[in-house]
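Consider this today:
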Amino acid sequence: MANSTNATTNDFFGHPRGLSTLFFTELWERFSYYGMRALLVLFMTAEAIGDNPGLGFGVGEAAAIYGIYTFFVYVLSLPGGWIADNIWGQKKAVFVGGCIIAAGHFSMAVPTTLFFFIGLVLIVIGTGLLKPNVSSMVGDLYPEGGARRDAGFSIFYMGINFGAILGPLLCGILGEGYNWHYGFSLAGFGMLLGLVSYKIGDKYLVGSGELAESITPKEIQTKSKMFYGIASLTVAFVVAFGFLVSSGAIFITLKGLAEILGVLVVLIVIVFFAVLINNKKWILPIVLVSVASFFVVDMFTDDGGFRQAAVVEFSNDLSQSLEKGKIDAAAYESVAGETDLDFTNLSGDQAAEITEKLTEAQVLALLDQPDGSVESLANELSASMNLQFTAGIVLLLFILVSIGQITVPTISLKIEQKRLMVIFWLFILAALFWSGFEQAGSSLNLFASELTDRSTGPNEFLGGMGAIILTLIIALPLGYYSFRTLKREDLWSMAKGAVVFSSVGILVFFYWLFNNIGDGWIIPASTLQLINPTFIVIFAPIFGVLWTWLASRDANPSIPVKFGLGLLGLAAGFFVLSWGSANASADNLVSPAWLIVTYFLHTVGELCLSPVGLSSMTKLAPKNRVSQMMGIWFVATALGNLIAGLVAGQLESLAPSGLFQTVALIIGGGGIVALLASPGVKKLMGDVE
C-alpha cells in the first residue's frame, strides 16, 4: 500500500514522483551521451602525439566512424524496445542499458584504440536498451492521458536538454582542455549518477515499465531463446567480418561500409512500405528492379566511369596530405617525374597521370590501405556508387507509382494506405533534415575547432574583484529561488536538494569561468555544442504557445508545411555558415557569432520538425502499427546521422564554405519541394490535424 501511495504522490512540481526518477535518469544519460559526442570527432582527428594526444585519424575516416556510431545508436532502439516489450520489461531494460553505457564510457577512458572501439560498441548497445524505454515509462505514469501527460513529457524533455547543455560544457572543458580520457571518464560518472538516481527512485515507479502480465513464462522463455540465438549469430557474424577485413580477405573502407549501410536501409524501408501499402504485391517487382538496375548501372560504368572516381579520391587524399604536411611534396614530385605541381588543385587527368607513375604500394600507403589493392579500392567505390544509383532508381519508381495510384481515378486507396504514404514522405524529409542537423557533432564541431576564434580575455576587471562581484550578483536570484523552494511543504525533498545542489554548482562554475576569462582563456570547441540545447530550453515553450495561438485562429500550419519550414530553417543556418566560412582560414579565424546564428536557425528548424514528427507518427499510424511507425522515425534519424557523417567527411577534400553551401542548397531545395507538395500531402492525411 505504501508503495502505491509513493508512486501516485504528486509532489514533483505537481507531477508523479516517479517522473523525477526518470527526469534525472535521462538527464544524466544525455549528459554522458552528448558530452562524449562533443569530444568524439575532435579526439579522433587530434594528432597522435603531444600533450593531449588523439588517434590521428583523417577527417574522412573519423566522420565515417561518427556516422556509423550514431546510426547504430538509433537503429538499436528497435531491438531494444522489442526486448523490453517481450522479455525484460522497460524498467529492467533501462537499468541494464545504463550499466552498459557506463561501462562503455569507462572503456573509452582507457588510452588504447582497442578499448576506444569497445567503448563505442558498448554505448551503442546500452543506448539502444535505455533510450526508447525510458520515454515509454513516462507515458505509463499518466494512465489517464490528456494534457497532464503532455505536460509531463515537456518536463521530461527539459531534462534531456539540461543534460545536453551540461555534457558538452563539462566534458568538453575537461576532455579538450586537459585530457580526452578525463572527459570520457566524466561522461561515465554522469551515467553512474543517473543509475544511482534510478535505483533510489525505483520505488516510485510501481506500475510503470513492468512486463505485461499477459505474457506467460513459457512465452518469455521461447522469446529469450530466439533473441539470444539471433544475438549470438549477429556477434559471430560481426567478429568474422572484422577478422576477414583485418586479414585482407575482404577489402572495404569505413566510408564504403557506411554507404552500403545507408543504401540497404533505404531499400529495406521501401520494401516495408511497399508491402504495407500494396499488400505484398510490390515485393517481387522491387527485387527485380533492384537487381536489374544494379547490373545495368554496372554495365555502363565498368569501363572507367565510376572506377575513375577512385583516381579522384586518391587525388583528394594526396592533396590534403601534402597540404597538411603529412607527405613530402618533393618526394612525390620526384616519383611523378614533374616539378612545381599544384597538388592542392589537381585535375582528374593530372591525378591519373601521377597515379600511373606511383607504385601500387605508394598509392595504398597514402590511402592507408596497405592490405588492399588499387583494383579492390576501385571495385569497392564502383559497387558503392552502383548501389546508390540502384536505391535512387527504386526510390524514384516507388514515389512515381505511389503518385500514380493517387491520381488515377480508377484506383481507390483506403485512408490507411494514404496515411502510410504520408508517413513514408515524412520519413524522407526527416532523414534529409537529420543529415544536416546532426553535422553539429562532426563538420560544425571541426569548424569550431579549426576556423573559429574562441579566445576570450584577458580582462583586468574579471582578473581582480570582478569575478567575485559578478558571482555574488548571480547568487542573489539563485539564493532567493532556492530559499523559496526549501520553504515549500508540497515538494519532495529530493527535488529540493537537486535545486540547491544545482544552484551551488552554477555559482562555482561561473566563478571559475570569470576567473579564466580574466586570465585569458580559449573556449574548448566542444563546449559550443551546448548552444543548440540552450536555445531549445529557451524557445520550446515559445513555439508551444505559438502553435496554440495559431490554432485558436485557425491558422496553425499543417504537418507537411511544418516539415518544409523545418528544412528551410536548417538550410538558412548552413547558408549563414557558408557565408561566414568563405574567408576563414587558420590565419583568419571567424567570430563564434556565425556558429551561434547557425545554431539558432537550426533550433528553429528542429522545433518545427522534431516534436511535430513524433506526434505525427502516432496520429497517422494504423492502430496496430503505432510502435512500428515510431521505429520508422528512429530509422529516419539513424539514416540522417549516417549521411551526416559521410557528408562531413567531404571536409577532407572540400573547403568548408563549399560544403556548407552545397548542404544548404540540397536541404533548401527539399524544403521548397516539401512546401509545394504540402497541399496534396495534407489531403492524403484525411481528418488528421
